[in-house]
């Protein structure tokens, strides 16, 4: 979780931190990390330069906060899509379809910030964050597959770890295809077919 930034003494802030970070997300989406300047963030976030530095820090610090907030929000929704359905097939399909829907959401940039923008950032902390996020996603999928074993949806010898990584790779691939303009309808159909491939030949 992101630690709450300590509030500065003095006059109350005239802006919403969460809203400002959401605006910063769009700035990084539109220009990429390297292409963004502090002036871009000042204009895009609607925050004066002194307040921006005092509350959020420099460009790198802002991007890290944006990345963490983005990952927490998307991760919670992805976990809900994965663990809400009762059947394993519906869970995997729901997880992949959520990634498609998120990557093709109207009013937002196509794709995924963690897949299409963050990997290009030459920063060790950003790369560690991405690696940890990928590992965490795979662990959630492993847990869901093990629940499927307990429920009798798949046999005890199902390759849980391998299939978990494959599902995360499929989710990334769908997001990348969304980024280059593949229609949502096509991606949703592909997510359904990918689910069957992941569960074969063990699907009940």
UniProtKB/TrEMBL annotation:
Identify the DNA-binding region of this protein by residue numbers.
Answer: 37-56
Listed PROSITE patterns = HTH_TETR_2
List the GO molecular function terms. DNA binding
Keywords of the record: DNA-binding, Transcription, Transcription regulation
Q: Pfam families given for it? A: TetR_N
Give residue ranges for domain HTH tetR-type: 14-74
Q: From what superkingdom does this record's organism come?
A: Bacteria
InterPro entries per record: Homeodomain-like_sf, HTH_TetR, Tet_transcr_reg_TetR-rel_C_sf
Protein name stated in the entry: Transcriptional regulator, TetR family
Species this protein is from: Bryocella elongata
């Amino acid at each position: 979780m992101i630690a709450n930034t300590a509030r500065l003494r003095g006059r109350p802030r005239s802006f919403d931190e969460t809203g400002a970070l959401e605006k910063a997300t769009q700035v990084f989406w539109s220009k990429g990390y390297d292409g963004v300047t502090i002036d871009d963030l000042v204009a895009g976030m609607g925050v004066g330069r002194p307040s921006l530095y005092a509350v959020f820090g420099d460009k790198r610090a802002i991007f890290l906060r944006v990345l963490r907030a983005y990952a927490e929000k998307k991760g919670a929704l992805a976990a809900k899509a994965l663990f809400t359905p009762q059947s394993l097939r519906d869970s995997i399909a729901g997880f992949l379809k959520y990634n498609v829907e998120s990557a093709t959401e109207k009013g937002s940039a196509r794709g995924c910030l963690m897949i299409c923008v963050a990997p290009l950032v030459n920063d060790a902390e950003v790369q560690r964050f991405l690696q940890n996020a990928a590992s965490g996603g795979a662990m959630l999928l492993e847990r869901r597959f093990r629940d499927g074993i307990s429920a009798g949806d798949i046999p005890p010898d199902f390759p849980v770890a391998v299939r978990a990584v494959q599902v995360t790779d499929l989710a990334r691939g769908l997001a990348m295809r969304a980024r280059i303009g593949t229609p949502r309808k096509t991606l949703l159909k592909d997510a359904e077919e990918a689910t069957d491939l992941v569960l074969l030949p063990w699907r009940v």
